[in-house]
Design goal:
Elements lengths: L1 H39 L5 H25 L7 H5 L5 H29 L13 H4 L1 H15 L5 H5 L7
């Protein structure tokens, strides 16, 4: 079971990284077109700004999920690393549970917002704004998934910086 979950997480991370790469490439092309059309051709393409905004939302939340898996988020660890006290491991686990609960709650609220905003349309792209908002609950669930699996990830991987820090 543990190995299956870790293998599934590895596959999810590969997909996340591919999405981040694809969205980043899309942003480079889109923003390049925006600069070219606005300042060189003096005929701005309105859709490039909207597409870039949608891409940035997806990039932020999928990038945050990748960062959660790699333990690259800013974490205030000064106290936990430098002070020894009884129950330190329990405090770290409690923080993990709170973080997972937070991301799950945020995912639910963001999904509700995406559903409520589904009737709104992005004017130049002509698509539902839900396409942009959907990145938020997906990213939050992915972060909760990675923080939750920190409990079963091998401690050796954590010490090497490959897992979520305690």
């Amino acid at each position: 079971m543990k190995n299956n979950l870790l293998a599934m997480e590895a596959a999810v991370v590969r997909v996340e990284e591919a999405v981040v790469f694809a969205v980043l490439a899309l942003l480079v092309v889109t923003l390049g077109l925006q600069v070219l059309s606005r300042f060189v051709l003096e005929f701005p393409l309105a859709w490039t700004e909207e597409l870039a905004r949608v891409g940035q939302i997806w990039l932020v939340f999928f990038g945050a999920a990748v960062g959660a898996r790699r333990a690259e988020h800013f974490v205030v660890e000064l106290f936990m690393e430098r002070v020894a006290f009884p129950g330190k491991r329990m405090v770290a686990r409690t923080i993990d549970v709170i973080v997972v609960a937070f991301f799950c709650a945020l995912a639910v609220m963001a999904a509700q917002a995406a559903i409520e905003g589904a009737g709104q349309e992005l004017p130049t792209l002509g698509i539902s704004i839900a396409w942009a908002y959907t990145a938020i609950p997906i990213g939050c669930l992915l972060m909760a998934f990675h923080f939750g699996l920190a409990w079963i990830r091998p401690l050796e991987a954590r010490a090497a910086g490959e897992g979520v820090a305690e």
